[in-house]
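lol ok so funny story. i was supposed to be doing the assay writeup but got distracted and ended up predicting the structure for this chain instead. priorities right. anyway since i did it might as well share w the group, maybe its usefull for someone
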Amino acid sequence: MLIVGEEMCRRYNMINLHPAVPGGPKGSWQEVIWTLMENRFKESGVMMHLVTPELDSGPVITYCTYSIISEPFDSHWSELNGRSVAEIKKEQGEKNELFQLIRRHGLAREFPLIVSTLKAFGKGEIKIENGKLFDQAGKPISGYDLSHEVNRALKLI
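and the output, tada:
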C-alpha cells in the first residue's frame, strides 16, 4: 500500500484498486470486510478510482458489485445472530467463515475488473481528462459499472 502526496496526484493519473463499492467502506480489505459485517451490508464489490491525497476518496472509474446476502452467504449471516462483530473478530479473527467468504468473492473479482477496465480504456469506452471520467460520447460519468463483464469473466453468466 502506497500513499502519495498532492504533487504526484496533480502530475499523474494514478488508479487504485479498492475492495468495496463506490460510497462503501474505506480502508484496508480487512477493515472493509469487518465494516460490511458489522453494518450488515447487502452487497459488496470492487472498484477502481483515481488516486487523490485523501485516501480511498478519488473519483470512481470502474466497479462491479455482488450480493452478500444470498447463498452461499445466508447460512453464515445466521451464525452472527445475537453476537457482535467485535466479539467474533476477537474470538475468530480472519478465520471467521463469513469473513473468508466475502474475501474470496471480492478477490475473485479483482483481476477481472482490472482487465475489464483496461479493455474499456483501450476500446475508448471511457477516458480520463483533467481528473474526470468521460464515456465514449464525451459525457462526464461517475463510474462505469463492469459487473456484467466481470461476471462473464468468472463464468457466472
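The longest helix spans residues 97-122. The longest strand covers residues 43-50.
back to the writeup now i swear
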